[in-house]
């Protein structure tokens, strides 16, 4: 369900980048994949050449001109004022009214007004929309106007499209819309870009030569004609939900990727913590509680760990498995993540419906010979998608941090060192500061995930008494995405470190068993092999427990303490076997074994530093592991003075892979077996 939807969207967006298929605007079939391709990757788009669509556009224009001309004409926004002023003003200056609509919307705060005579306390660029958001907004608005319900000339639609073709992107104030009568101000700046009478600044140029300039200069540079807005046209352009819908579409796309990350990191956490596949058993979800999202998460996790050598079912005879079941962050992950997959899929459908809808007012019904006054500009559908998406992001962040802290905590991580340090704990703090940073990211994520839509203020002479706040909600969703990407950058780094440490531990356990057996064979050369094997098995099991209980100690003290903890096991075993006991000096054995294990551990650790990899023991999460270790060139962190690079540079590369999209094919490859 969700995975298939995300895979199709990503594949289609990738295909658009090679112009196969092209992004052709028709007013009826724009999708999130196309919005992402155009907004982020500057993929070319094209206006439809369908004659019937152009005919509908032209007929709506003729309808407006006919109905708004002559004595007694009274069309809203053409012969009347707008909003609360629509009931008290009348005019026959139809063109001047459209100019006034654009001019009065140009009242936002822009960085161009900041005098560079002081050191600003914030980044002035944060006052404007990112360019990708505006590209997406222009695309979605053109698509809606193509439906022929708004009364805009084809020349105007062509002019707006030329902004995309030539990558002329207006600088639009970030905070000026309540998404009630649509996103009036953002669309006002977009519309004003084509007006020779407005003073809009735009981004123009390619690569390092891209810079801000007046819109008139950019239009002239690219041979784009400025326009005078005709009756209803300015109102039609500005009165719509395109900006909030566009930003929401980009946000849902990114959130879908993070929903995949939540599942991949959960599977890898099960491996790192030697968890059990039992939590994802098909009977649990498919039969016992068959919610679609829960079924999908369980199926995906089951597939990802199917071939893992690190997961295990509970074995009551194994003394290291005192925890009968995994903790909640692993065991209830299908129930925690699953519902949000269902909401995200529904959210995508809602937004794709919105971007192929008519969202201005009034709406022209040419066939019915009528003008309809309503509220399709009220972007509550978009706002609700964003509210639910942020809740999903917060839940993903919460489970990620729970898994992350379980990896770091020696009381919970089943034998891994504190804070995943690979060197001596007294001088290697590992992920200690990362834990604090991740807590900071989650705290901010949790704050911005609170609802926006219950903070509505009555605006515009009480005409806009209720308003969706969809754009504000979409903006905070992007803040939430940024925080969650930081959480996952840390989590993925930690998971790769953890599985490496787990494999290092398993390699040492294999050598430790040999060392214990050798120590007993040399102590009891005349005793039957069966006795030595039984004693080895008993002591080795206790040694594994003690190894997990001494992770906080430096190596020398650790193995002295570990072997000391074995004395009771050895003594108890030998009590019923008097003959060998007479010839066994337990204190010499203790001293020699501690020395041997210390040396073996140091050799195993040193070898792993040079050649070690967790890859052979991982399930399909190995693709993510290789991406981090090979593609991003982030090695196992050895601690002490062995590392050439700080952690910040490494987690920043993981974070950047979310923005670039480089990590997405890797994640989909991890889940390929789940299809």
TrEMBL record:
Keyword Chaperone attached: no
Record has Electron transport as a keyword: no
Protein name, as recorded: Phenylalanine ammonia-lyase
Organism (species): Sistotremastrum niveocremeum HHB9708
Pfam families associated with the record: Lyase_aromatic
Family assignment from sequence similarity: Belongs to the PAL/histidase family.
A single cellular component GO annotation: cytoplasm
Gene Ontology annotations of biological process type: L-phenylalanine catabolic process
GO molecular function, one term: ammonia-lyase activity
Key words of the record: Lyase
InterPro entries: Aromatic_Lyase (IPR001106), Fumarase/histidase_N (IPR024083), L-Aspartase-like (IPR008948), Phe_NH3-lyase (IPR005922), Phe_NH3-lyase_shielding_dom_sf (IPR023144)
SUPFAM superfamilies on file: L-aspartase-like
């Amino acid at each position: 369900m969700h995975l298939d939807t995300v895979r199709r969207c990503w594949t289609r967006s990738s295909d658009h980048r090679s112009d196969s298929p092209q992004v052709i605007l028709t007013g009826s079939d724009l999708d999130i994949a196309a919005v992402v391709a155009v907004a982020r990757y500057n993929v070319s788009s094209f206006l439809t050449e369908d004659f019937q669509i152009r005919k509908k556009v032209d007929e709506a224009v003729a309808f407006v001109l006919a109905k708004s001309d002559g004595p007694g004409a009274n069309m809203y926004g053409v012969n009347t004022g707008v909003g609360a002023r629509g009931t008290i003003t009348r005019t026959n200056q139809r063109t001047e009214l459209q100019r006034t609509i654009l001019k009065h919307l140009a009242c936002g705060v822009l960085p161009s007004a900041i005098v560079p005579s002081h050191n600003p306390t914030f980044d002035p660029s944060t006052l404007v929309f990112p360019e990708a958001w505006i590209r997406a907004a222009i695309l979605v608005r053109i698509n809606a106007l193509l439906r022929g319900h708004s009364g805009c000339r084809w020349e105007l639609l062509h002019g707006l499209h030329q902004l995309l073709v030539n990558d002329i992107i207006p600088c639009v104030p970030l905070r000026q819309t309540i998404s009630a009568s649509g996103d009036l101000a953002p669309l006002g700046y977009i519309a004003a870009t084509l007006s020779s009478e407005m003073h809009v600044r735009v981004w123009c140029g390619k690569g390092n030569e891209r810079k801000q300039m007046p819109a008139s200069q950019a239009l002239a540079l690219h041979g784009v004609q400025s326009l005078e807005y005709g009756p209803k046209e300015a109102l039609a352009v500005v009165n719509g939900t395109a900006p909030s819908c566009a930003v929401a579409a980009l946000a849902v796309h990114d959130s879908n990727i993070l929903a995949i990350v939540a599942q991949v990191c959960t599977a890898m956490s099960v491996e790192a913590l030697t968890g059990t596949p039992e939590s994802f058993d098909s009977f649990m979800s498919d039969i016992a509680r068959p919610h679609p999202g829960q079924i999908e998460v369980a199926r995906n996790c089951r597939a990802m760990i199917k071939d893992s050598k690190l997961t295990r079912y509970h074995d009551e005879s194994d003394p290291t498995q005192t925890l009968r079941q995994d903790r909640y962050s692993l065991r209830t992950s299908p129930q925690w993540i699953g519902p949000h997959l269902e909401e995200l899929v529904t959210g995508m459908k809602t937004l794709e419906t919105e971007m192929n809808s008519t969202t201005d007012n009034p709406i022209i019904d040419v066939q019915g010979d009528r003008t309809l006054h309503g509220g399709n500009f009220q972007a509550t559908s978009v706002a609700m998608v964003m509210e639910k998406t942020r809740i999903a992001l917060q839940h993903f962040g919460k489970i990620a941090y729970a898994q992350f802290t379980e990896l770091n905590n020696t009381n919970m991580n089943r034998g891994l060192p504190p804070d995943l340090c690979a060197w001596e704990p007294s001088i290697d703090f590992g992920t200690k500061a990362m834990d604090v940073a991740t807590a900071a990211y989650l705290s901010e994520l949790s704050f911005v995930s609170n609802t926006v839509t219950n903070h509505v203020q009555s605006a515009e002479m009480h005409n806009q008494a209720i308003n969706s706040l969809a754009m504000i909600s979409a903006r905070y969703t992007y803040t939430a995405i940024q925080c969650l990407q930081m959480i996952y950058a840390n989590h993925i780094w930690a998971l790769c470190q953890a599985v490496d440490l787990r494999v290092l531990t398993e390699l040492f356990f294999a050598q430790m068993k040999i060392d214990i057996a050798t120590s007993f064979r040399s102590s009891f050369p005349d005793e039957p092999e069966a006795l030595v094997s039984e004693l080895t098995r008993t002591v080795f099991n206790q040694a594994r427990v003690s190894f997990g209980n001494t992770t906080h100690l430096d190596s020398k003290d650790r193995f002295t303490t570990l072997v000391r903890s074995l004395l009771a096991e050895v003594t108890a075993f030998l009590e019923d076997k008097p003959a060998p006991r007479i010839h066994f000096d337990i204190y010499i054995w203790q001293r020699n074994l501690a020395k041997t294990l210390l040396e073996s551990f140091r050799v195993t650790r040193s070898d792993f530093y040079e050649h070690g990899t967790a890859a052979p023991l991982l399930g399909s999460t190995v693709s993510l592991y290789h991406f981090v270790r090979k593609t991003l060139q982030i090695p196992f962190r050895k601690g002490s003075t062995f590392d050439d690079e700080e952690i910040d540079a490494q987690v920043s590369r993981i974070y950047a892979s979310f923005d670039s999209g480089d990590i997405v094919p890797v994640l989909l490859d991890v889940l390929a077996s789940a299809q």
